[in-house]
Known about the structure:
This protein has 11 helices and 13 strands. It is of the alpha/beta class and about 300 residues long. It is globular and about 55 Å long.
Amino acid sequence: MKILVTGGSGFIASHVVDRLLRDGHEVTVLDLWRSAAVGGQTGNPRMKFVQGDILQDKRVSELMRGQDVLIHAASILGTSETITAIDVEQTALTNVVGGVKMLKHAKAAGVRRVIVPTTPDVAWLNPYKITKNAVQKFCQLYHRNFGLETVALQLGNVYGPRERYPESEDGAPFNYEKIIPTVLMRAMRGETFFIYGDGEQRSEYVYIDDVVESFARAVAAEQNIGGTVIPVGCGRNLSVNQVVETIRRVWGRDIQTAHAPMRPGEAHLEIALDPGLLSKHLGYRLRYSLEQGLAQTIPYYESMHLHGARGD
């Protein structure tokens, strides 16, 4: 198939692009920047990279023609960052208006299926969570009212190689903090990792390969799965404290920690994702435990630290 991937230079989407190419699809990536991961595919005749903005109607309309599937992963990320470092209006414009534009162009071009990563609907008042939940509802609106087959893959806390961390210097236009790469890189530099609040806030931690498999199955699904919201999880969550302890145990080294106040836009709650719809619609159950995923992830960041790298 011919597949357009927006935000294809990012952590999750770049892994999805790799898988789509291995599966024999023709992939066009639209992004503001070219990451090293996507740059490594530039010699592949089935991959085309286009540097551009999802808000550029003419360019997006042209790219959408002839595409079978759209994976719309482009967005501005960040919990506190979308409050303290990035203009709220910019996040809303890119994530919500940009998302609606992609749905509109996909419908006009006759795209068969649109797949959008979203987040669990939780009471976190930050622009990223608010806008991703809005896009999820617009996907359902476009399916119900305009007949566009839209699928929302609701993701937990995804981790794995290539995930960015606060000190990344890889040319990406936006930065954000995620727990696992931040713990690893700060520990290797002998720095303290700050746990926000009491560390008992809980989320699902999902290894990137499980997420990629879910995307691949959503692309290949023969039945119409339009309007569905499919959580990609197993129903088992862990606290921040448990994640740090698991990293210590799997890695076999000390991690210096201290507590800091909760960040703006964050709340003390529990996130758990029901695996039933993933099994029902895509025939899949997650394969990786946190321990197994960390065993695949840690060597990547050790290599980055060894070679003095600061980003993908």
